[in-house]
Queue: 2 jobs
Job 1
Amino acid sequence: MLTLVAILVDGVIYSSWLFIVSAGLTLIFGVMKILNIAHGGLYALGAYTAVSAIGSYFAGGYPPLASYALLLLVAVVVGLVFGLLIERGVLRLMYGRDEIVIVLVTYGVFLIIEDAIKVIWGASPYYASQPYGLLGRVQISGLAFSVYDLGLIALASVTGALLWWGLNRTRNGKLLLAVIHDREISAAMGVDVRRVFTVTFVIGAMLGALGGAFTAPTTSVVPSIGVELIVLAFAVVVIGGLGSIEGAAIGALVVGISRASSVHLLPEAELFVIYGVMSLVLAFRPQGLFRRVVARKI
Amino acid sequence: MTMPNVISASFLLPKRPVRALVAATLALLSAALGSQAQEAPKLKIGIVTFLSGGAAGPFGIPARNAAELMVEAINNGTVPAPYNSKGIAGALIQTVVIDEAGGTTKQVTEYRNLVQRENVDLVIGYISSGDCLAVAPVTEELKKLTIFFDCGTPRIFEDASYTYLFRTGPHGTMDNVAAARYLAETAPQAKSIAGLNQNYAWGQDSWADFRLSMQALKPGISIVTEQFPKLGAGQYGAEISALLVGKPDILHTSFWGADLEGFVLQARARGVFDARKVLLSAGEPAIFRLGAQIPDGTIIGARGTHGLFAKPSALNDWFRKAYYDRFATPPIYASYKMAIAFLGVKAAYEKAAAGTGKVPTQEAVIKAFEFLEFETPSGKIRMALGKGHQAIGDNAIGTYKFDKAAGQPTFVDVKYYAAECVNPPEGVKSEAWIKSGFKGAKCN
Amino acid sequence: MRGPAVAIGLPFLLFCGLIAAGFLMPGWLRFITLIALAKGLVVLSLMLLMRAGLVSFGQGLYYGLGAYAAGLGVNLLKVTEALALLALGVAVAGAVAWVLGFLLTRYREIFFAMLSLAFSMILYGLLVKSSALGSTDGFNLPTPTFLGFAFAGTAARHALFVLTASVAFAAALLLHRYLGSTRGYLGEAIRENEIRVEYLGASVRGALHVKYVLSAALAGAGGALTAVATGHIDPDLAYWTTSGEFVFVAILSGTGSVAAPFLGSFVFEMIRTYAFAYSPNTWQMVVGATMLLVIIFMPGGLWSLFRRRPRLVTRS
């Protein structure tokens, strides 16, 4: 019983984290058809910037609780600056090229970001855990959990709800959906697809940085955190169905719960569980759990 | 392809033109001073250590820093006796530094480049056991003196023997044997253990050594859970819950780097340290970084008598001060291990030269290196295993206590273990030795 | 149309030149060339799939399988003949591909890429879990014999070079013939329009299955040769970054010719080794920037330098 509770809580916390870090990836893929490996770099940039910002914030002796707003601010600023830089500076030159070529372009950007981080922050790990410890812990069925971790569930829910609302209930969101559905027709109908691309990429970048910024207090950041993350996030969005926000949420839950079950019940399988689940899902639902309808080319 | 004669700072300089410029300046300078440095023979050393990836921060960079310090100190003759002569057997060191990242195929390629393209006289390097295993046979093929300074797997000299290869760092077995002995002595009431180790060779081997040692020392001890999260996972929520559910008396982890720091932060927040002994078998590099974040009472090892476990001596005092003055951070075990490699090389070369005033041949150096005993900042190192090619040294384990007044990490209840107490005798494989109940161990 | 004499003659001359160069070049360069040729085989295998519109992010699966088959062949089965080890690597990779092919040929685009990645990561996980195989530390291979001759030292390196160059040459030649045949051209037809291919009476899945097994066999050969040349294998051979590197080199090379993968592979190894030596702290940045520049300025890959009229092989 205790194990069951632990699996559920651990699983949902981990899923929330996965959802935050992979929502941007799936959004960018949905709209732009770009599998953005640089997402890992944006995540790392968000994490590093957050650590630096928190460090000087607490050194300055400002009210501790407002540090959570600082994390949000970091995500917005990093996403805005680097999202614009990458989209305007690099990707814009590539539109119309093969999807796989663009994947490699983002991989190149990712490598450059990795070394740039090393040049700026050095190779040593950094941590700034003040916001993590601030909220203390609670007991659930006698097990101690960190309140901050539980807060991630709320953050993920709010992020998901805002994305859903923005896409389905606002005019701009509907334009976005139109572009997702058919880029050429949207352009023909007068949608400024390039602007939509820029805005999408920046939002996606902010989500990546948001993941990094809110992960930073829980752990220690090193230059390689981006690499570790990116395959995980890929697995989540592929399981859910690329380009679907609901899919990313379900994918995150599937991966999170399976991983937690494996850790508690069968620790030896932890390394396989994500890829095992991914292979299984793809074997039965070749396009992921939430597939998009694609017209056949004749 | 010849390299410009850059003496000590070559790895600080990124580009060839800059190097050439500095080399020219240095050459002019030495000519102007009329020194004999121009005629002094050179010893070109290839240095391989992690400059990128997760292992760079906790091991690679501190080791590179130590190399930088040692090269300069040896060339200037500022290391305390018996290493106070200038250079190595009169030869001034110059270095080529290579990143250890990229995997074993890449590292075998780069090792060949160092020997055949850069024409180094010897190579000092390798933190990853996989890289060590891959490079070892190539040292024989290319017949080049090579010193492994850090990698931990006992398989190198237990599965094969080598002529040109030496390892000045004791292998990893003694880390966990010493830790198990320490816990058996200080926590005799413990009835259950649990393991949390990264899912790769280092984590698996560390846990196997520790588990077998505990079972040999305290038969009947139960194992609650064996967790192997992915290397670099960063999030340990589920693993921590599993530990809290299982309630082991002792938790063993060989985590290092960011994984260790992340785990300590998360585990502390959820009270993992409150009701049990937690052993961080390779935790020493983290103490200066985490400071008060590591709860007092945590048991920590440094993979030898390095860092705060190193006993005061002229060599150690000099090394700590010189390192701190230069890098504004205390040296950690990877720094000590790199320094040991340099001192071993210097000792072997000078024993081989034995007053001839000439740089000895590689064959003579190898003969001198075998079964060599030499003083280091970490105490005496003896090349006792692997037909005189594998070092052993003493080990120490201590209980962590953060000195709030001084703002400094310290260790209390430190226990020292003689090299023969925690290392298998020559010719016996580590695992078999532990399973035999440490047959032939000499503990004081 | 060039005459058949030129078509065979020029590559053969190049091959002889390569073998001769192998004897003349310094040891380190020979080793890099050797590794580039072995990895070039894997890139060639990707090119074969790319021509049919499939990009595998999991070619490390077969690269790793080939290497481990060769490694276990030496250490477990006590096979010491290099050619036999090569055959073993090819056979194991091919056999696994034949089984997985039934599933994978149903997938296209990113789903094919991700599913192949998942399989390679499952192999990686299995290898990391196998402490009998040394887990992530891997294990060493002794130098094999060549057609029964046991060479040592430099002679063994020369023999290995000749073997690898010959295998690469033979593979490139055979693949060139295959790509020029009707079955070979089916790949491009599938990439352009699968449904029309089916209307024309060809089996898309059948054709892709054959290509998939061929591609795995090539990658397995590359893995076996790398294992024998390096003398060490570990699970990183199957890790996703290894697979990603192959895709990168394939794009860098271009799909214009069967020689392109070997050229691209060599250029990549050289860029990386000099970046390592002269920019040890920022070599990733050098590699990444090179990648961007090539993609921006050479859309057809390096091979476009050798064509008067670059033919874009990317999809619109």
Job 2
Amino acid sequence: MTIYASRFGPVEVPANGLWQCRQPLAGFEELRDFALIQVAGQSPFVWLQSLELQPIAFLLAEPRHFGLQYPRPADAEVSGLAGAACQFLVMVTIPENKDEPLRPHHLGPLCLDPGSGEFVQWVLEPGRVAVSAGFRPQTEDLGLAPALLPRLVRWPDGSASPDSRSASIAA
Amino acid sequence: MLILTRRPGEAIRIGDKIRIVVVQAEAGKIRIGIEGPRELPILREELYTLIREGNQQANAPADLALEHWLAEGKKEKP
């Protein structure tokens, strides 16, 4: 299917590039369908683009780039998804003040199950996860977890594989 | 808003799958127990608000904000 995203324009999303939110995201309860978009030159970041509202897109990155580590959730903690299959991505806020660091939404990582194409936001109590030490990109490996790659939409079409280790961030 | 009066040990049911029990009430605090489907998200309201605000802040950064950020190298060095 072809979607029109405010940020990217028309984007071709194959069937295996569709993601469904199993439980509504707080503040965005009406949204269920998304695509995970990798833009050439923006590793290690990806976009979670709403398929229902064109302007809605969340910037995501793997928690490891912020020094964050999450335990494996019990299935019930992630709304019945297989906790052991979780591939975590965190939402990232770009501060308006450029002197401030990027902020990961560390209390609400997204647990993505590549097998089912579903994800859920796992909400943790503040004491259960350490505060991020700041953005520290693991420049040796900017690629996403291999399990996510088959469900990634690359934009623009034909861009280099996001699995490549060509760093888009000056180390 | 529906307002009910309950004493410790008494409960409220919401539909046929959710049961809320008043466990203890003293010193200005009320402890409640909630029984429901394991997959049902149950959050303290202040945590829900924190998550919602974080989601809203992460949504749709200004056009080219990431590109500018990447270009200017506004990152912390490892």
